[in-house]
């Protein structure tokens, strides 16, 4: 599950790797994002329900859920609500609450591309150079995508208040992956999420910001593979 305003593209390096290791991988675009028709879903609870309905439609009985940023809130809510549908949970760059800077919401509401610039500025450790351009900028590249996707997502994150309660309800094996230089989800906040989930495993990646799925893709996917293998015997 991708983060705010993003799409399934963020998982491309992870999909290839996990598929080659024998797993069936489904990375989705939320409604109103990427190739999925809109409108965007306005709440974390609503997205959780959408996953359940999607599983029913596709006749999938059980999943291992991997979520980044906003996707962590969705993972917490989904695992808490539907424990029989989830085998394991991987939470990347997240916490049980994700308050959003009001200025960022205002820019996104107005379709202002400055919201994407701010996300990139806060999302990466230091000044990162990307071959072929910044991946976030490539995914969110129009005022319409900002207004109809990113803005709705940011409000959903800001309004979600059930995270701590949901985390304490989770019983499935859970892996939390955090970046030690994350400006969006400070390390101590991410650790509080891990501490609130029974028997969770914590991995902290060094010299890494919020966009772990890009910044430390190769390291992260090995950690995920090992966790999934251990819990799916």
Walk me through what this model shows.
The protein has 233 residues and is an alpha/beta fold. It is built from 11 helices and 4 strands; from the N terminus they run ααβαβαααααβαβαα. Helices cover 48% and strands 10% of the residues. Helix 1 (12-20) crosses helix 11, helix 2 (44-58) packs across helix 3 (70-81) and helix 4 (102-109) runs antiparallel to helix 5 (114-123).
Helices and strands, with pairings:
Elements (H helix, E strand, L loop, with lengths): L11 H9 L23 H15 L4 E6 L1 H12 L4 E7 L9 H8 L4 H10 L11 H5 L3 H17 L3 H7 L4 E6 L7 H10 L4 E5 L6 H4 L1 H15 L2
Parallel strand pairs: 1-2, 2-3, 3-4
Helix pairs in contact: 1-11, 2-3, 3-8, 4-5, 4-7
Summarize this entry quickly.
With 233 residues, the chain is of the alpha/beta class. The protein is 48% helix and 10% strand. Strand 3 (174-179), helix 9 (187-196) and strand 4 (201-205) form a beta-alpha-beta unit.
State the helix count: 11
* Percent of residues in β-strands: 5-15%
CATH C-level class of the domain at 8-97 and 161-231: Alpha Beta
Here the CATH topology of the domain at 8-97 and 161-231 equals Rossmann fold
The parts where pLDDT drops under 50 for at least 5 residues are none
**Can you write the helix and strand succession as a string?**
HHEHEHHHHHEHEHH
Distance between the termini: 24 Å
Count of extended strands: 4
User: What's the Cα radius of gyration?
Assistant: 16 Å
| Corresponding CATH architecture of the domain at 8-97 and 161-231 | 3-Layer(aba) Sandwich
Q: What percent of the residues sit in helical stretches (DSSP H or I)?
A: 40-55%
> In the CATH hierarchy, what is the superfamily of the domain at 8-97 and 161-231?
Alpha/Beta hydrolase fold, catalytic domain
Please identify the structural class as seen in this structure.
Answer: alpha/beta
Instruction: Specify the oligomeric state.
Output: single chain
- C-alpha geometry: globular
Strand order of the largest sheet: 1-2-3-4
Look at the structure and give the mean pLDDT. Answer: 92
Largest sheet: 4 strands, parallel
């Amino acid at each position: 599950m991708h983060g705010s305003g993003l799409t399934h593209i963020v998982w491309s390096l992870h999909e290839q790797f996990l598929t080659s290791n024998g797993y069936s991988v489904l990375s989705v675009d939320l409604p109103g994002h990427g190739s999925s028709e809109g409108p965007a879903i306005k709440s974390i609870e609503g997205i959780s329900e959408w996953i359940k309905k999607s599983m029913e439609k596709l006749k999938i009985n059980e999943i291992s859920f991997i979520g980044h940023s906003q996707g962590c809130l969705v993972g917490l809510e989904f695992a808490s609500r539907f424990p029989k549908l989830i085998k394991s949970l991987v939470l990347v760059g997240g916490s049980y609450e994700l308050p959003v800077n009001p200025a960022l919401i205002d820019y996104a509401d107005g379709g202002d591309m400055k919201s994407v610039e701010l996300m990139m500025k806060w999302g990466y450790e230091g000044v990162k150079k990307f071959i072929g351009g910044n991946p976030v900028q490539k995914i969110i590249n129009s005022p319409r995508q900002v207004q109809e996707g990113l803005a709705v997502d940011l409000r959903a994150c800001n309004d979600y208040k059930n995270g701590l309660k949901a985390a304490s309800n989770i019983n499935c094996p859970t892996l939390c992956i955090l970046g030690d230089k994350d400006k969006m989800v400070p390390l101590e906040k991410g650790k509080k999420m891990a501490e609130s989930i029974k028997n969770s495993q914590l991995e902290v990646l060094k010299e890494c910001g919020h966009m772990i799925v890009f910044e430390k893709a190769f390291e992260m996917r090995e950690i995920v593979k090992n966790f999934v293998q251990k819990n799916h015997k």
